[in-house]
Description:
By secondary structure, the protein is an alpha/beta fold. The protein contains six helices and 20 strands.
Amino acid sequence: MTNKLGLFGVTVLVATMMAGCVPPAPPSAAPPTTAVVTPSTAAPTTAAPTTTVAVAGPHAPTISSFTASTTAAPSPLTTALRWSISDPDGNPLTCRLDLDGNGTFDHTITGCTSETSRTRTFATAGSRTVVLEVSDGTNATTAALGLNVSSASSDQYAVTLRLGSGMTPAQTSAFTSAAATWAGIVKTGQPDRTVTIGTNFCADGTAAYSGTVDDLLIDAQVIAIDGPGGILGQAGPCLVRASNGLPLYGIMQFDSADVASLEASGQFANTIVHEMGHILGIGTVWSSPLLQGAGTSNPRFTGAAAVGTWRELGGAGDVPVENTGGAGTVDSHWRETTFRTELMTGYLNSSNQLSALTAASLADLGYGVDLAGAAAYTLPALWAGSMRAHGADEHDDIVRVLPSGTA
Length: 407
Ligand SMILES: [Ca+2]
Ligand SMILES: [Ca+2]
Ligand SMILES: [Ca+2]
Ligand SMILES: [Ca+2]
Ligand SMILES: [Zn+2]
Protein backbone atom coordinates (compact mmCIF):
# COMPACT_ATOMS: atom_id res chain seq x y z
CA MET A 1 0.00 0.00 0.00
CA THR A 2 1.44 3.29 -0.96
CA ASN A 3 0.13 6.66 -0.06
CA LYS A 4 1.12 9.30 -2.48
CA LEU A 5 -0.32 12.75 -2.61
CA GLY A 6 0.09 14.58 -5.82
CA LEU A 7 -0.62 17.69 -7.68
CA PHE A 8 -1.28 18.25 -11.28
CA GLY A 9 -2.19 20.81 -13.80
CA VAL A 10 -3.88 20.65 -17.10
CA THR A 11 -2.37 20.17 -20.49
CA VAL A 12 -5.30 21.26 -22.64
CA LEU A 13 -5.57 24.95 -22.12
CA VAL A 14 -7.80 27.76 -23.25
CA ALA A 15 -5.79 30.61 -21.87
CA THR A 16 -6.85 33.06 -24.54
CA MET A 17 -10.38 33.13 -23.22
CA MET A 18 -9.29 35.32 -20.33
CA ALA A 19 -8.90 39.01 -20.89
CA GLY A 20 -5.72 40.69 -19.83
CA CYS A 21 -3.53 37.64 -19.61
CA VAL A 22 -0.19 38.51 -18.09
CA PRO A 23 2.40 36.43 -16.27
CA PRO A 24 1.63 36.11 -12.58
CA ALA A 25 3.55 38.60 -10.53
CA PRO A 26 5.81 37.33 -7.75
CA PRO A 27 4.72 38.19 -4.23
CA SER A 28 6.32 41.43 -3.19
CA ALA A 29 8.00 41.95 0.16
CA ALA A 30 7.17 44.94 2.30
CA PRO A 31 10.09 47.22 3.10
CA PRO A 32 11.67 46.44 6.44
CA THR A 33 11.20 48.79 9.33
CA THR A 34 14.04 50.65 10.94
CA ALA A 35 15.00 49.37 14.34
CA VAL A 36 15.52 51.73 17.25
CA VAL A 37 18.45 50.37 19.17
CA THR A 38 18.74 51.20 22.84
CA PRO A 39 21.74 49.75 24.68
CA SER A 40 21.31 49.42 28.40
CA THR A 41 23.15 47.90 31.31
CA ALA A 42 20.15 46.41 33.02
CA ALA A 43 20.93 43.78 35.58
CA PRO A 44 19.94 40.23 34.71
CA THR A 45 16.45 39.38 35.86
CA THR A 46 17.52 36.29 37.73
CA ALA A 47 20.62 35.84 39.86
CA ALA A 48 22.03 32.51 40.90
CA PRO A 49 24.58 33.34 43.60
CA THR A 50 25.26 29.78 44.59
CA THR A 51 25.86 28.57 41.05
CA THR A 52 28.99 29.01 39.04
CA VAL A 53 28.11 30.70 35.79
CA ALA A 54 30.10 31.88 32.82
CA VAL A 55 31.12 35.48 33.33
CA ALA A 56 29.95 37.72 30.53
CA GLY A 57 32.35 40.16 29.02
CA PRO A 58 32.04 43.81 29.93
CA HIS A 59 30.37 44.90 26.70
CA ALA A 60 26.65 44.81 26.00
CA PRO A 61 25.41 42.86 22.96
CA THR A 62 24.89 44.76 19.74
CA ILE A 63 21.64 44.77 17.73
CA SER A 64 22.50 45.98 14.23
CA SER A 65 19.01 45.38 12.84
CA PHE A 66 15.57 44.30 14.01
CA THR A 67 12.98 44.06 11.25
CA ALA A 68 9.62 42.55 10.35
CA SER A 69 8.98 41.05 6.92
CA THR A 70 5.50 42.64 6.85
CA THR A 71 4.85 45.79 8.86
CA ALA A 72 1.38 46.89 7.77
CA ALA A 73 -1.62 44.74 6.81
CA PRO A 74 -5.17 44.02 7.88
CA SER A 75 -5.66 41.70 10.83
CA PRO A 76 -4.47 38.99 10.99
CA LEU A 77 -0.99 40.27 10.19
CA THR A 78 1.50 37.43 10.01
CA THR A 79 5.11 38.51 9.90
CA ALA A 80 8.62 37.22 10.40
CA LEU A 81 10.63 39.00 13.11
CA ARG A 82 14.32 38.98 12.25
CA TRP A 83 17.44 40.45 13.79
CA SER A 84 21.15 40.77 13.33
CA ILE A 85 22.95 40.61 16.67
CA SER A 86 26.42 40.05 18.04
CA ASP A 87 28.37 40.30 21.26
CA PRO A 88 31.69 42.13 21.37
CA ASP A 89 32.97 39.60 23.89
CA GLY A 90 31.69 36.56 22.07
CA ASN A 91 29.26 35.67 24.84
CA PRO A 92 26.31 33.36 24.12
CA LEU A 93 23.14 35.40 23.84
CA THR A 94 19.55 35.08 24.97
CA CYS A 95 16.77 36.92 23.13
CA ARG A 96 13.44 37.89 24.58
CA LEU A 97 10.47 39.31 22.70
CA ASP A 98 7.71 41.53 24.06
CA LEU A 99 5.17 40.88 21.34
CA ASP A 100 2.34 43.03 22.65
CA GLY A 101 4.43 45.95 23.88
CA ASN A 102 3.14 45.71 27.46
CA GLY A 103 6.57 45.64 29.04
CA THR A 104 6.51 41.94 29.80
CA PHE A 105 8.53 39.58 27.64
CA ASP A 106 6.45 36.81 26.13
CA HIS A 107 8.99 34.60 24.37
CA THR A 108 12.56 33.58 25.23
CA ILE A 109 15.17 32.16 22.87
CA THR A 110 18.35 30.77 24.40
CA GLY A 111 21.32 30.36 22.10
CA CYS A 112 19.95 33.26 20.07
CA THR A 113 21.89 34.24 16.95
CA SER A 114 21.40 36.37 13.87
CA GLU A 115 20.06 33.24 12.20
CA THR A 116 17.22 32.94 14.65
CA SER A 117 13.88 34.37 13.56
CA ARG A 118 10.31 33.98 14.66
CA THR A 119 7.00 34.24 12.80
CA ARG A 120 3.96 35.51 14.63
CA THR A 121 0.40 36.54 13.87
CA PHE A 122 -0.86 39.87 15.22
CA ALA A 123 -4.64 39.71 15.25
CA THR A 124 -5.54 42.76 17.32
CA ALA A 125 -5.97 45.87 15.20
CA GLY A 126 -3.95 48.96 16.04
CA SER A 127 -0.39 50.20 16.20
CA ARG A 128 1.85 47.68 17.88
CA THR A 129 5.35 47.91 19.27
CA VAL A 130 7.44 44.76 19.41
CA VAL A 131 10.54 44.83 21.61
CA LEU A 132 13.59 42.63 21.25
CA GLU A 133 15.97 42.30 24.18
CA VAL A 134 19.33 40.63 23.68
CA SER A 135 21.25 39.68 26.80
CA ASP A 136 24.67 38.19 27.44
CA GLY A 137 23.63 37.30 30.98
CA THR A 138 24.95 40.54 32.46
CA ASN A 139 24.22 43.30 30.01
CA ALA A 140 21.20 43.67 27.77
CA THR A 141 20.42 45.68 24.67
CA THR A 142 16.93 46.34 23.35
CA ALA A 143 15.44 47.38 20.04
CA ALA A 144 11.85 48.07 19.00
CA LEU A 145 9.85 48.05 15.81
CA GLY A 146 6.34 49.17 14.99
CA LEU A 147 3.57 47.23 13.28
CA ASN A 148 0.39 48.72 11.88
CA VAL A 149 -2.43 46.18 12.08
CA SER A 150 -5.52 47.56 10.40
CA SER A 151 -9.03 46.24 10.92
CA ALA A 152 -9.80 42.85 9.48
CA SER A 153 -11.19 42.98 5.98
CA SER A 154 -14.96 42.72 5.76
CA ASP A 155 -14.27 40.35 2.88
CA GLN A 156 -13.27 37.06 4.41
CA TYR A 157 -11.61 34.50 2.19
CA ALA A 158 -14.21 32.15 0.76
CA VAL A 159 -14.07 28.94 -1.25
CA THR A 160 -16.78 27.76 -3.60
CA LEU A 161 -16.78 23.99 -4.04
CA ARG A 162 -18.33 22.30 -7.05
CA LEU A 163 -18.56 18.64 -6.17
CA GLY A 164 -18.84 16.06 -8.89
CA SER A 165 -21.90 13.88 -9.12
CA GLY A 166 -22.24 10.77 -7.01
CA MET A 167 -20.68 12.09 -3.80
CA THR A 168 -22.15 10.52 -0.67
CA PRO A 169 -23.26 12.71 2.24
CA ALA A 170 -20.16 11.59 4.15
CA GLN A 171 -17.92 12.58 1.27
CA THR A 172 -19.65 15.92 0.92
CA SER A 173 -19.13 16.47 4.62
CA ALA A 174 -15.42 15.70 4.25
CA PHE A 175 -15.06 18.40 1.59
CA THR A 176 -16.91 20.90 3.74
CA SER A 177 -14.71 20.02 6.69
CA ALA A 178 -11.54 20.45 4.63
CA ALA A 179 -12.65 23.88 3.45
CA ALA A 180 -13.34 24.84 7.07
CA THR A 181 -9.80 23.80 8.04
CA TRP A 182 -8.32 26.21 5.50
CA ALA A 183 -10.82 28.90 6.50
CA GLY A 184 -9.20 28.80 9.93
CA ILE A 185 -5.89 29.79 8.34
CA VAL A 186 -6.55 31.86 5.22
CA LYS A 187 -8.56 34.84 6.40
CA THR A 188 -8.36 37.88 4.19
CA GLY A 189 -10.44 37.95 1.04
CA GLN A 190 -9.04 38.70 -2.38
CA PRO A 191 -10.78 41.00 -4.85
CA ASP A 192 -13.69 39.41 -6.71
CA ARG A 193 -13.02 38.48 -10.30
CA THR A 194 -15.55 38.00 -13.07
CA VAL A 195 -14.66 35.09 -15.30
CA THR A 196 -16.05 33.11 -18.17
CA ILE A 197 -14.85 29.52 -18.07
CA GLY A 198 -15.77 26.94 -20.65
CA THR A 199 -16.55 23.29 -20.07
CA ASN A 200 -13.54 20.99 -19.68
CA PHE A 201 -11.34 24.03 -19.04
CA CYS A 202 -9.62 22.50 -16.03
CA ALA A 203 -10.01 18.82 -16.87
CA ASP A 204 -12.36 16.50 -18.66
CA GLY A 205 -15.77 16.82 -17.09
CA THR A 206 -15.40 20.23 -15.46
CA ALA A 207 -18.45 22.41 -15.97
CA ALA A 208 -18.60 25.87 -17.42
CA TYR A 209 -18.70 28.84 -15.08
CA SER A 210 -19.63 32.41 -15.83
CA GLY A 211 -19.73 35.03 -13.13
CA THR A 212 -17.94 36.24 -10.05
CA VAL A 213 -15.31 34.19 -8.24
CA ASP A 214 -15.08 35.03 -4.53
CA ASP A 215 -12.34 34.06 -3.76
CA LEU A 216 -11.55 30.60 -5.07
CA LEU A 217 -13.55 28.20 -7.20
CA ILE A 218 -12.73 24.51 -6.82
CA ASP A 219 -13.98 21.57 -8.83
CA ALA A 220 -13.77 18.18 -7.13
CA GLN A 221 -14.03 14.86 -8.94
CA VAL A 222 -13.72 11.21 -8.04
CA ILE A 223 -12.23 9.46 -11.08
CA ALA A 224 -10.13 6.41 -11.87
CA ILE A 225 -6.44 7.34 -11.63
CA ASP A 226 -4.06 4.44 -11.01
CA GLY A 227 -5.84 1.77 -9.00
CA PRO A 228 -5.42 1.05 -5.28
CA GLY A 229 -2.50 2.84 -3.62
CA GLY A 230 -0.05 4.98 -5.53
CA ILE A 231 -1.73 8.26 -6.26
CA LEU A 232 -4.55 9.01 -3.83
CA GLY A 233 -5.42 12.38 -5.25
CA GLN A 234 -4.03 15.16 -7.35
CA ALA A 235 -4.76 18.83 -7.58
CA GLY A 236 -3.63 22.18 -8.81
CA PRO A 237 -4.78 25.63 -9.85
CA CYS A 238 -5.99 26.14 -13.42
CA LEU A 239 -6.36 29.90 -13.28
CA VAL A 240 -4.37 32.42 -11.25
CA ARG A 241 -4.90 36.09 -10.55
CA ALA A 242 -3.12 38.44 -12.90
CA SER A 243 -2.67 40.86 -10.00
CA ASN A 244 -0.68 38.71 -7.61
CA GLY A 245 -0.38 35.17 -8.97
CA LEU A 246 -2.71 33.67 -6.36
CA PRO A 247 -5.03 30.94 -7.60
CA LEU A 248 -8.58 31.76 -8.66
CA TYR A 249 -9.82 28.42 -9.96
CA GLY A 250 -8.53 24.90 -9.51
CA ILE A 251 -9.37 21.25 -9.49
CA MET A 252 -8.81 18.27 -7.24
CA GLN A 253 -9.31 14.70 -8.29
CA PHE A 254 -9.46 11.64 -6.07
CA ASP A 255 -8.82 8.09 -7.16
CA SER A 256 -12.04 6.09 -7.09
CA ALA A 257 -9.93 3.04 -6.22
CA ASP A 258 -8.72 4.68 -3.00
CA VAL A 259 -11.64 6.72 -1.70
CA ALA A 260 -13.31 3.87 0.18
CA SER A 261 -10.13 2.89 2.03
CA LEU A 262 -9.33 6.54 2.78
CA GLU A 263 -12.79 6.96 4.25
CA ALA A 264 -12.45 3.75 6.23
CA SER A 265 -9.15 4.89 7.72
CA GLY A 266 -10.48 8.36 8.44
CA GLN A 267 -7.95 9.92 6.05
CA PHE A 268 -10.24 11.18 3.31
CA ALA A 269 -10.70 14.63 4.87
CA ASN A 270 -6.93 14.94 5.40
CA THR A 271 -6.31 14.04 1.79
CA ILE A 272 -8.78 16.69 0.68
CA VAL A 273 -7.11 19.28 2.90
CA HIS A 274 -3.78 18.37 1.31
CA GLU A 275 -5.07 18.66 -2.24
CA MET A 276 -6.87 21.89 -1.44
CA GLY A 277 -3.53 23.22 -0.21
CA HIS A 278 -2.11 22.68 -3.69
CA ILE A 279 -5.01 24.62 -5.20
CA LEU A 280 -4.28 27.46 -2.78
CA GLY A 281 -0.80 27.45 -4.29
CA ILE A 282 1.36 25.30 -2.05
CA GLY A 283 3.92 23.69 -4.35
CA THR A 284 2.04 24.85 -7.42
CA VAL A 285 2.74 28.57 -7.67
CA TRP A 286 6.13 28.35 -6.00
CA SER A 287 8.85 29.88 -8.12
CA SER A 288 12.11 31.73 -7.68
CA PRO A 289 12.96 33.50 -5.43
CA LEU A 290 10.60 31.73 -3.00
CA LEU A 291 11.73 28.34 -4.29
CA GLN A 292 15.47 27.92 -4.70
CA GLY A 293 17.35 24.92 -6.01
CA ALA A 294 14.44 23.30 -7.88
CA GLY A 295 15.68 20.22 -9.69
CA THR A 296 18.69 19.84 -7.40
CA SER A 297 19.26 17.53 -4.45
CA ASN A 298 18.50 20.37 -2.03
CA PRO A 299 15.51 22.51 -3.03
CA ARG A 300 14.54 25.08 -0.39
CA PHE A 301 11.62 27.39 0.33
CA THR A 302 12.93 30.83 1.28
CA GLY A 303 9.80 32.76 2.30
CA ALA A 304 10.55 34.76 5.44
CA ALA A 305 7.43 33.68 7.33
CA ALA A 306 7.93 29.98 6.60
CA VAL A 307 11.61 30.26 7.46
CA GLY A 308 10.69 31.79 10.84
CA THR A 309 8.55 28.77 11.69
CA TRP A 310 11.31 26.43 10.47
CA ARG A 311 13.89 28.14 12.69
CA GLU A 312 11.49 27.89 15.64
CA LEU A 313 11.18 24.15 14.99
CA GLY A 314 14.97 24.02 15.35
CA GLY A 315 15.92 24.15 11.68
CA ALA A 316 18.76 26.06 10.06
CA GLY A 317 18.88 27.82 6.72
CA ASP A 318 15.82 27.78 4.49
CA VAL A 319 12.98 25.23 4.56
CA PRO A 320 13.79 21.81 3.02
CA VAL A 321 11.57 20.97 0.04
CA GLU A 322 11.04 17.45 -1.31
CA ASN A 323 14.01 16.27 -3.36
CA THR A 324 12.78 12.83 -4.39
CA GLY A 325 9.74 11.32 -6.03
CA GLY A 326 8.01 11.99 -9.30
CA ALA A 327 7.40 15.30 -11.00
CA GLY A 328 4.24 15.78 -8.95
CA THR A 329 6.06 15.24 -5.68
CA VAL A 330 9.54 16.74 -5.98
CA ASP A 331 9.99 20.52 -5.55
CA SER A 332 6.37 20.92 -4.47
CA HIS A 333 6.05 19.50 -0.94
CA TRP A 334 7.93 19.76 2.35
CA ARG A 335 10.68 17.16 2.49
CA GLU A 336 9.28 13.91 3.87
CA THR A 337 12.50 12.79 5.55
CA THR A 338 12.63 16.08 7.48
CA PHE A 339 8.97 16.74 8.24
CA ARG A 340 7.42 13.29 8.14
CA THR A 341 3.92 13.93 9.57
CA GLU A 342 3.43 17.47 8.27
CA LEU A 343 0.35 17.33 6.05
CA MET A 344 1.97 19.09 3.10
CA THR A 345 4.70 16.50 2.70
CA GLY A 346 4.16 14.34 -0.37
CA TYR A 347 3.33 11.17 1.53
CA LEU A 348 0.43 10.54 3.86
CA ASN A 349 1.20 9.20 7.33
CA SER A 350 -1.15 7.64 9.85
CA SER A 351 -1.45 11.04 11.50
CA ASN A 352 -0.80 14.31 9.74
CA GLN A 353 -0.63 17.88 11.01
CA LEU A 354 -1.30 21.09 9.10
CA SER A 355 1.38 23.12 10.85
CA ALA A 356 2.35 26.77 11.20
CA LEU A 357 5.04 26.12 8.59
CA THR A 358 2.42 25.50 5.92
CA ALA A 359 0.25 28.37 7.15
CA ALA A 360 3.21 30.74 7.14
CA SER A 361 4.18 29.68 3.62
CA LEU A 362 0.77 30.95 2.48
CA ALA A 363 1.57 34.30 4.07
CA ASP A 364 4.75 34.31 1.99
CA LEU A 365 2.60 33.80 -1.11
CA GLY A 366 0.59 36.88 -0.19
CA TYR A 367 -2.43 35.54 1.70
CA GLY A 368 -3.74 37.12 4.89
CA VAL A 369 -3.04 34.24 7.26
CA ASP A 370 -3.70 33.46 10.92
CA LEU A 371 -1.19 31.02 12.38
CA ALA A 372 -3.68 30.29 15.17
CA GLY A 373 -5.52 28.04 12.73
CA ALA A 374 -2.53 25.71 12.42
CA ALA A 375 -2.08 22.48 14.37
CA ALA A 376 0.63 21.83 16.93
CA TYR A 377 3.63 20.19 15.31
CA THR A 378 7.20 19.26 16.19
CA LEU A 379 9.95 17.87 14.01
CA PRO A 380 10.26 14.09 14.26
CA ALA A 381 13.23 12.47 15.90
CA LEU A 382 15.82 11.05 13.51
CA TRP A 383 14.18 8.62 11.17
CA ALA A 384 17.24 7.05 9.62
CA GLY A 385 16.03 3.51 10.11
CA SER A 386 12.46 4.06 9.08
CA MET A 387 12.51 6.56 6.28
CA ARG A 388 10.45 4.26 4.11
CA ALA A 389 8.41 2.69 6.86
CA HIS A 390 5.22 4.07 5.40
CA GLY A 391 5.96 2.33 2.11
CA ALA A 392 6.08 5.39 -0.08
CA ASP A 393 6.95 4.60 -3.61
CA GLU A 394 8.54 7.08 -5.94
CA HIS A 395 7.41 6.16 -9.37
CA ASP A 396 7.07 9.13 -11.61
CA ASP A 397 3.41 9.23 -12.42
CA ILE A 398 2.15 12.70 -11.73
CA VAL A 399 2.33 15.43 -14.29
CA ARG A 400 3.15 18.87 -13.01
CA VAL A 401 1.93 21.69 -15.18
CA LEU A 402 1.72 25.34 -14.25
CA PRO A 403 -1.61 27.15 -14.15
CA SER A 404 -3.11 27.57 -17.57
CA GLY A 405 -4.21 31.15 -17.50
CA THR A 406 -4.78 34.30 -15.51
CA ALA A 407 -7.76 36.51 -14.87
CA1 LIG B 1 4.27 41.20 26.46
CA1 LIG C 1 -13.75 37.69 -1.04
CA1 LIG D 1 -4.48 5.25 -6.56
CA1 LIG E 1 4.31 12.58 5.37
ZN1 LIG F 1 0.67 16.85 -2.73
